[in-house]
Amino acid sequence: MDLTVVAYVIYLFISIGLTVWVARTLSRNGRVFIGDVLQGNEKLADAVNHLLVVGFYLVNIGFVTLYLRSGETIREARGLFEALSVKLGVVLLVLGVMHLGNVWVLTRMRRRGIMERQQTPPVAPQGWTAPAGA
To answer: Are the C-beta atoms of 48 and 38 separated by less than 8 Å?
Structure first.
């Protein structure tokens, strides 16, 4: 069997496994932030969380498959490891950037939700007061 095909199989297996692991971790831990932003609306938090996970899968698995092709033929074990290290390193960097992007978006959403709650008065206005000195 050609070592290039072996490299493809190993690359896909590890890359997709890493993508699934990161997506599950983001989903499990990001739900807390989404629930806080949406002020306890659990159904909406679950829906938003699921949509974020689907988008994460689409972007990352799309990148992994586009980045699959190798321009050179791998002829020995050393070349196999070198090709895999470069490809997996790039995939890990992309996953890290996507992870940081998701955390940044969730943090901004949470911060905005906290600010909106602080601006809302705890009691609705009950009347009107004339200006002083009138």
So the answer is: yes
Amino acid 132 reads A
CB 34, CB 106: distance < 8 Å: yes
The Cα 110–Cα 115 span in angstroms is 9
Instruction: Tell me the per-residue pLDDT of 87-122, one tens digit each, with 9 for 90 and over.
Output: 899 888 988 888 888 778 878 877 877 777 777 666
**CA-CA distance, 45 to 113, in Å (whole number)?**
13
* Residue 46 contacts residue 31 (beta carbons within 8 Å): yes
Whole-model pTM?
A: 0.70
What are 70's two structure tokens? 């190798």
Q: How far is the C-alpha of 131 from the C-alpha of 32, rounded, in Å?
A: 45
